[in-house]
From TrEMBL:
Pfam families: Asp
Family matches, as InterPro entries: Aspartic_peptidase_A1, Aspartic_peptidase_AS, Pepsin-like_dom, PEPTIDASE_A1, Peptidase_aspartic_dom_sf
Keywords from the named record: Aspartyl protease, Hydrolase, Membrane, Protease, Signal, Transmembrane, Transmembrane helix
Residue intervals of the Peptidase A1 domain: 57-390
UniProt-listed SUPFAM superfamilies: Acid proteases (SSF50630)
Annotated protein name in UniProt: Peptidase A1 domain-containing protein
Example GO BP: proteolysis
A molecular-function term among this protein's GO annotations: aspartic-type endopeptidase activity
Transmembrane segments: 459-482
Family statement: Belongs to the peptidase A1 family.
Signal peptide: 1-15
Length: 545
C-alpha cells in the first residue's frame, strides 16, 4: 500500500492552463437576474457564469462583503483571491498553490462568503498578494481569483489548516455540510461566444437542476473513477469513456491506449476540468483529429495544431453508451487571433496533445476542458466525497446531457466560418488518407518524460517481479539455513538420542522452531526496500508551462 506514497510527491498542479493570451475579449454573455422567471420562486437563483472569449468562465462571489469575479475551476479545490478583503481574520498560516500558469502564494484568511444563494461563515481562502509569476494578466481577463470546485481532499488550504478547524473545508463542502436535507451536487452549462446559434445561458446550480434540463438526472450515472489508494492530491472529477470512445472526423473510432494502469481495455480516464481552455488529449488522438487536414501545421511555440478556419471537423466522445458530439466551432478556434505567414487567419486545433507531465503517473488520459464542456450540461454528484455528509453519502457520480445538435451546429459553422455558403464539402477540405496524415513531433524533453512515465507506470510490476524474486531467494536461504539447522539438529539429536538411548531415555528429535522467526524478518525488509531505492527523480520542472 505504501507504494502509493510516491504519488503524493506530485502536487495537484493541473488546475489552470491558458496557453497564451486571448486576443479578443468579447462581451460577457452573463445571466441577468431578470432572466430567472418568477415561476421558480421557490428555487434559489443559479450562479451566472460569464464567458470571457471562450477561454475563461467567471462567476461572482461575495467575500467579506466584497463582490469578486472568480474563475470557476472544477479541476482544483482551493479558493483564492487578490486585492483587499475586509471583515476577514488571519489564520496565521500561509500556503503556495501551484498551477500550470504559475504560483499563487499568500496567507490563509477566513471571511463570510456568498456563492449564489448560499452563504458560508468564515470560509477559509488564500489572499494572494503577488501574481507576478502568472503567465497571464488575470485582471485584464476579467477575474480576481479562482474558486476550486474539485474534491475537498485535494485542497491545499484544508491540508494546511489544523484538522480540528471546522472552517477548513473547501467551499462546496461547507455549503453541503450546512444543509443536510439537500443532495451534494452541482450542475453547470457554459455558453459559447461568437456563435449566433448558441442558446445556452452560462450558469451553475447547487443541489438543483436548471429548469428545462431536469432530464439530466435520468442520464447514465458515470462513476467517479477514484485514483487507487489516493483520496487526496490527485483525485479529480474523472470517469471512463466508453470503449472506442472518441470518434474522429472520418467517423471512425480513434485508436488510442490509456496510460492509466488500471483502466479497462479500450477506455480512457477523462477529467471534467473547467479550468482548462483547451482539452488535453493523448498525442495520437490530437494527431488523428488534425493531422489529416490539408494545410494543418504543427505550431511549435504553442504546441498545438493549426488548421484552415474553414475546415469543419466533426468529432464526438462517448460516455455511458451515449455519443456527445462536439460543435465544429469548438473543434477548432478562431479566438486566438493566429495568422499564417501570409497574414491570413488560421485556427487553433483545440484538442491539444497532453504533455506527459500532467499525468506523469498515469492517473488520467484526457482533460475535458472548456471547448468540450460547452457541448454538455454537466452534473457532478459529490456524494460521500463531502466530509460529514449525513444525507447524501453514496458514491460520487457524473451525469452528462448533450447540448449540441449536429444539424444546427453545422448551420452555425457555415454562418460563422464559411460566410454563409456551405463549402464544407469542397475538395480542399477532404481529409488526407490516413497513411498521409502528419504526426506532431514529440519534443526531446517530452520523449524523456515519456520514457520515465513508462518506467513509472510499469514500476508496480517491476516491484511485483522483484518482490517475487526476492521472496524466492529469501525462501531459498531460509530453507537452506533451516535445513542446515535441521540437519545439524537431526545429527545432534541423533547423537543425543544415541547418547540418551545409551542412557535409556526418549525424546523428540525435531524441534528447530526458531528458524521461523527468520521468515518474518527478511519479508518486512522487502517491504521497505523499494521505497528507499525506488524513489523517482523529481519531475516538478515538467509541470511548468
Ligand atoms: C437569492 O438571491 C437573490 C439575490 O442575490 C435574491 O433576490 C433571491 O430572493 C434569493 N432567493 C432565495 C430563494 O433565497
Ligand atoms: C459572518 O456571518 C455570521 C453568521 O451569519 C455572523 O454572525 C458574523 O457576524 C459574520 N461576520 C462578519 C465579520 O460579518
Ligand atoms: C513576486 O514574486 C516574484 C516571484 O514569483 C518575485 O520575483 C517578486 O519579487 C515578488 N514581488 C513582490 C512585490 O513580492
Ligand atoms: C493587467 O491589466 C490591468 C487592466 O487591464 C492593468 O491595469 C495592469 O497594469 C496589468 N498588469 C500588468 C502586470 O501588466
Ligand atoms: C436545504 O436544501 C433544501 C433542498 O434543496 C432546501 O429546500 C432548503 O431551503 C435548504 N435549507 C437551507 C437552510 O438552506
Ligand atoms: C427529456 O425529457 C423529454 C420530455 O421533457 C423527453 O421527451 C426526452 O426523451 C427526455 N430525454 C432524455 C434523454 O431523457
Ligand atoms: C458534420 O456533421 C454534420 C451533422 O451531422 C453534417 O451535416 C456534416 O456534413 C458533417 N461535416 C463533415 C465535414 O463531416
Amino acid at each position: 500500500m505504501r507504494l502509493l506514497f510516491l504519488f503524493c510527491l506530485f502536487h495537484a498542479v493541473h488546475a489552470v492552463k491558458i496557453p497564451f493570451e486571448v486576443h479578443t475579449v468579447s462581451s460577457f454573455s452573463g445571466l441577468t437576474s431578470s432572466s430567472t422567471s418568477s415561476s421558480y420562486l421557490e428555487r434559489r437563483d443559479p450562479v451566472a457564469i460569464k464567458n470571457v472569449a471562450n477561454s475563461i468562465y467567471v462567476s461572482d462571489i461575495t467575500l467579506g462583503g466584497r463582490t469578486i469575479p472568480v474563475m470557476l475551476d472544477t479541476g482544483s479545490s482551493d479558493l483564492w483571491v487578490t486585492g483587499q478583503v475586509s471583515n476577514s481574520q488571519d489564520s496565521g498560516k500561509s500556503v503556495t498553490l501551484e498551477y500550470a500558469v504559475g504560483e499563487a502564494a499568500g496567507d490563509i484568511l477566513y471571511a463570510n462568503l456568498t456563492f449564489g444563494n448560499h452563504s458560508v461563515s468564515n470560509q477559509a481562502f488564500l489572499l494572494v498578494t503577488n501574481t507576478s509569476s502568472f503567465s497571464t494578466n488575470i485582471t485584464s481577463q476579467g477575474y480576481s481569483g479562482l474558486i476550486g470546485l474539485g474534491p475537498n481532499s485535494g485542497s491545499s488550504i484544508r491540508n494546511k489548516l489544523n484538522s480540528d478547524d471546522t472552517n477548513r473545508d473547501a467551499v462546496l463542502d461547507r455549503i453541503f455540510q450546512q444543509n443536510q436535507t439537500s443532495r451534494n451536487y452541482i450542475t453547470f452549462m457554459l455558453g459559447r461566444a461568437n456563435d449566433p446559434g448558441s442558446t445556452v445561458t452560462g450558469q451553475l446550480t447547487i443541489s438543483e437542476t436548471v429548469p428545462g434540463y431536469e432530464n439530466i438526472t435520468n442520464q447514465p450515472k458515470l462513476d467517479v473513477v477514484t485514483v487507487p489508494g489516493l483520496t487526496d492530491r490527485d483525485q479529480h472529477w474523472q470517469m471512463y469513456t466508453d470503449v472506442d470512445g472518441i470518434i474522429g472526423p472520418d467517423g471512425q473510432p480513434i485508436v488510442y491506449e490509456s496510460i492509466v494502469p488500471k483502466a479497462p481495455k479500450g477506455q480512457l480516464v477523462a477529467i471534467i476540468d473547467s479550468g482548462f481552455t483547451l482539452p488535453q488529449v493523448p498525442r495520437s488522438v490530437s494527431d488523428a483529429i488534425y493531422g489529416r487536414v490539408q494545410g494543418a501545421q504543427w505550431n511549435t511555440d504553442n504546441e498545438l495544431w493549426t488548421i484552415p478556419c474553414g475546415q469543419m471537423l466533426n468529432i464526438s466522445v462517448k460516455f455511458g453508451g451515449i455519443n456527445f458530439p462536439v460543435h465544429p466551432l469548438d473543434t477548432s478556434s478562431s479566438d486566438f487571433g493566429l495568422r499564417d505567414s501570409s497574414g491570413n487567419p488560421i485556427c487553433v486545433g483545440t484538442f491539444q496533445p497532453i504533455t506527459s507531465a500532467f499525468s506523469l503517473l498515469g492517473e488520467y488520459d484526457l482533460i475535458l476542458g472548456m471547448a468540450f464542456l460547452r457541448n454538455i450540461y454537466t452534473l457532478i454528484d459529490l456524494g460521500k466525497f463531502v466530509d460529514g455528509s449525513a444525507n447524501d453519502n453514496g458514491d460520487a457520480f457524473i451525469q452528462l446531457l448533450s447540448m449540441t445538435n449536429t444539424a444546427a451546429a453545422h448551420a452555425d459553422f457555415v454562418n460563422v466560418r464559411l460566410g454563409g455558403v456551405d463549402t464544407a464539402g469542397q475538395s480542399q477540405y477532404y481529409l488526407l488518407p490516413a497513411s498521409e496524415g502528419q504526426s506532431s513531433p514529440e519534443s526531446a524533453k517530452e520523449k524523456k518524460q515519456h520514457l520515465e512515465e513508462k518506467v513509472l507506470s510499469r514500476w508496480p510490476y517491476i516491484f511485483l517481479g522483484s518482490f517475487v524474486l526476492f521472496c524466492g531467494i529469501v525462501g531459498l536461504i531460509v530453507w537452506r539455513c533451516c535445513c542446515r539447522r535441521r540437519c545439524a539438529e537431526r545429527k545432534k539429536a541423533k547423537a543425543l538420542a544415541k547418547k540418551r538411548r545409551m542412557n535409556g531415555l526418549q525424546m523428540n528429535p525435531l524441534k528447530g522452531g526458531d528458524a521461523y522467526y527468520q521468515l518474518d524478518e527478511p519479508t518486512s525488509s522487502i517491504h521497505s526496500l523499494p521505497y528507499s531505492e525506488g524513489h523517482p527523480p523529481s519531475y516538478h520542472s515538467g509541470y511548468r508551462v
